[in-house]
Automatic annotation (TrEMBL):
Residues 13-168 form the Putative restriction endonuclease domain. CDD domains: DUF820-like (cd06260). Gene3D superfamilies: tt1808, chain A. PANTHER family: GLR1098 PROTEIN, RESTRICTION ENDONUCLEASE DOMAIN-CONTAINING PROTEIN-RELATED. InterPro entries: Nuclease_put_TT1808, Restrct_endonuc-II-like, Uma2. This is Putative restriction endonuclease domain-containing protein.
Length: 202
């Protein structure tokens, strides 16, 4: 995500009208717009693997699964983001054409350039969504999934799912997304993902 310093501050309505004319997707926070940069092949594979699994599981259950081209509105005046994957089971989103507003699950695939933002300010934005039950962070450089769930006291709790590759026996583990009652093996999320070696450039 790159701030577009050459652009003037915009109202939410100005941003929505302006972005429809652009070839690049832009997020919107407090009057500023931020160009969305391309991800790695690993990033793309992880998001596609999970979105496909969720889509197949939730078919016919009244939920919709979206990937990175779908816009999320925290409120009617923003901020506006493009999560890597999100699920909404709220009837108010069923007829939405441009913006999702009531997701129960949001997933971001981490990259070195956006990890701090995904963990910090973006998560703070997402926590304002009353329907959100889980926020998932997936590492694109090692097999690690962090699941933040809101408990009955309204507090966010972390459940990590990590394969320790330093041990002699690497065993698969099951990942649980309680917001949609979904279970899958960690290896499914990382199917066909090639991790970067120490000597690899591209």
């Amino acid at each position: 995500m790159i701030a577009s310093a050459s652009l003037p501050f915009m109202s939410p309505q100005e941003y929505l009208e302006w972005e429809e004319q652009q070839l690049t997707k832009y997020e919107y926070v407090n009057g500023e717009v931020f160009a969305m940069t391309g991800g790695t092949l690993a990033h793309n594979s992880i998001a596609l693997n999970l979105a496909s699994a969720l889509k197949n599981y939730l078919r016919g259950k009244g939920c919709k699964v979206f990937m990175a081209d779908a816009k999320l509105g925290i409120s009617e005046i923003g901020p506006y983001h493009y999560p890597d994957v999100m699920v909404t089971c709220d009837r108010r989103d069923q007829s939405a054409r441009k913006i999702v507003q009531f997701p129960c699950l949001i997933v971001e695939v981490l990259s070195p350039g956006t990890e701090a933002y995904d963990r910090g300010s973006k998560f703070a934005h997402y926590r304002r969504i009353e329907t959100l039950k889980e926020y998932i962070l997936i590492d694109a450089e090692k097999m690690s999934v962090e699941c933040y769930r809101i408990n009955e006291r309204g507090k966010w709790e972390l459940t990590p799912y990590i394969i320790d590759e330093t041990t002699s026996e690497v065993k698969d583990i099951e990942v649980e997304f309680d917001s949609v009652n979904f279970r899958c093996q960690l290896s499914l999320i990382y199917e066909d993902v090639i991790f970067k070696s120490e000597n690899q450039i591209l």
